[in-house]
Amino acid sequence: MKRKLIFTAAFVLIAWSFTSCETQKCKFCKNVTYENGSVINEGTETEYCGAALIAKEATPDIVVGSLTTKVECR
To answer: What is the dihedral of CA 11, 12, 18, 23, to 10 degrees?
Structure first.
């Protein structure tokens, strides 16, 4: 009986872990650098969810001379 309860609990936890990020708002974000309106560099995309996504989207643009680096999410 204990064995069935352990297997059932393990199955429920595994099933819940696969859908944990789906309940949150998730996006893929990357840093993009522009020079005078033209893209000169793009970073790699990383998935952000929940509070990490809100913090990433709140990151201000960085301007150095004619270079502007922004966070773009899709």
So the answer is: 170
